[in-house]
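Appendix B, record 7
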Amino acid sequence: MTKTRNLIFVLAVLLCSAAYADDQVRIGIGLPYLNIGVNLNRYPDLVAVPGYPVYYAPGVNANYFFYDGLYWVYQNDNWYASSWYNGPWSFVDPLAVPAIVLQVPVAYYRRPPAYFRGWRVDAPPRWNYHWGRDWDSRRSDWNRWDARAARSAAPLPLYQREYPQDRYPRRLEQQRALQDRSYRYQPRDAMVRQHYGRRPAQNVPPTRSKRTRRDDGDRR
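Structure tokens (predicted):
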């Protein structure tokens, strides 16, 4: 009898977990099997970052940006991108994040991580210190972008305002069909084009132990 009760309990837990995971995917707040913690009820208000072809969302409790046709979120030490405001999200390796996004000043991060503390708010985060020498040697030009020579910002996909959470398209095929019909913009940044239209499940973040970074004591 005890074994039977235990089996029933385990099955109940598994069924509840499956229902919860399915709900996470259906409401569009991340990759299948991955929740990045962004769950918006409606299309966010986006404001241009002065001098940059980038928007940020001052009313969203996340490091949330829009650049060149994609939404970008910096969450839990990882970058993610999506063509829709509430995901699903695709992990972006630090080596593949557009330089212009990396150049956005600290002041426009609504939830700056602890290691941003003490950094100038009118300057970009110190990614070269945070991600280490190997990253810095491979992305040595990341902070050489000149904001004064910035191209114009991509148009916002305002058609997505018509799709609050209760009408949000659940399937990638739905999202792509709506985007093809209502938003004809094509990214101009080569790095953005690498992510545009990619299926989120094809790209997942590495384990934290594999990330190469300098220790906090190396910052100066």
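Remarks on this record: Confidence is low (pLDDT under 50) at residues 2-33, 209-213, 215-220. The helical segments are 2-26, 99-102, 127-138, 172-182, 190-195.
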